[in-house]
Amino acid sequence: MSLIPLAQLLACERPHDHPVAFSDNHTATWAQFQHDVSSLTAHFEAKEEQRWALAFDDSYLFATAFLALCHARKDIVLPGNLQPGALNELRPHFDAIVHDERIQLLANTPAVSLPNAELNAQANLSHPAPFDAVTLTLFTSGSSSTPKAIVKQLSQLQAELNQLEFQWGDTVSNTRVQSTVSHQHIYGLLFRVLWPLSAGRAFSCSDLVYPEQVTAAAQSDATLISSPALLKRLEGQCKHNEYRAVFSSGGPLPFDASTHSEQLLGQRPVEVYGSTETGGIGFRQQTLSTQPWQLFDDIRAELDEHGCLRLLSPYIDANAWYQTADLCDLINDTQFVLKGRADRVIKLEEKRVSLSEIEQRLCENTWISDAASLVLSLDERQVVAAVVVLSPEGQRKVTDVGKGKFQLALRQQLRDWLEPIAIPRQLRFVNAIPQNSQGKRQKQVIESLFSPASSTNE
């Protein structure tokens, strides 16, 4: 089944019983989807509010609301966090909210609840959706304390969907889509909902939350949309079956996790590199620990004078170069190596220190499986600190010698690679680096581990 542009999707001919989305006890068909979008479109057309926030756990209900808002010429807002406090913080960005009753509503905010809204009329969806009249607002999440609004045109999303189908359409043809990531963020929006909808692949209404759910759902006719946050937690799981394809985004996946995914799920994950601002930039499938990234075919890249990536991309603005803060080496016109973020290069006592390099050197140590570094103000001076996840070998070392001697030994080993000013002065041991559901590290939570109120484990 070929890719149908989103603007023409509701008018396309598909069998009435063609599956659109599935749950444990129900499958939504194409006929039901057309009916639901038509009814909801008429409902939105009668509303005066222009900017609508979508707040859904259920991906099928999300998809119906998304397409209905497009056809009703309403602007769409996607909060990345559905907690009441986070929604209230974004309240200036939307006029009303449509939801599936799994969120706590905001006071004095017009709302439509699905599936319980009274939908009596039907809209005519035989004409293309007016994409040019609709904007989509998403928000950056993870490292920053205040979400930043990113406005996109739906034509930019369509350009990216076309590229995904060109790149992997044959691979995932006739599969069912399982996911561990939310449709409220751009990666999940594209890979979990819009791409399957356009290509006629059924997607799951709900998330796979736990590693054992991921392994249990593996089938040769299933595609998994996931992230490093979950794929790194598969250690100790039992193999049930194999997926046709596995995708990961939200950050680079450690090579060991890629290898373990292949052993457990039958596939090395296809990693997709990009951001809310840029959309997809490139991809890789790690058969080597030094595997470079491959640019998508419709993207051009160059480096600025600081070695940071600049992009010419139809997912941003096809006519203007976009400057990133990603430090890279270009191997050739289509391949590159990521070296970290320029905004993570800091000055301490007039010396340039890369927080990304500190994390890399920590993770190269056999005692450490993951690490996050940051800068703290201590006694009126700035020092480097780190949160680390111990490997089994590191745990045994701590048990044998104690935390104090372990930290001294670790710092001594880091001296082979780092200047003294860059060696972490404070360490915290955790079971996992704090991340959100998209695999983005939560800077505020990491910083809080060093607050006086938190228990010390130096």
Automatic annotation (TrEMBL):
Residues 125-283 form the AMP-dependent synthetase/ligase domain. Pfam families: AMP-binding (PF00501), AMP-binding_C (PF13193). Residues 357-440 form the AMP-binding enzyme C-terminal domain. This is AMP-binding protein. It comes from Enterovibrio norvegicus.
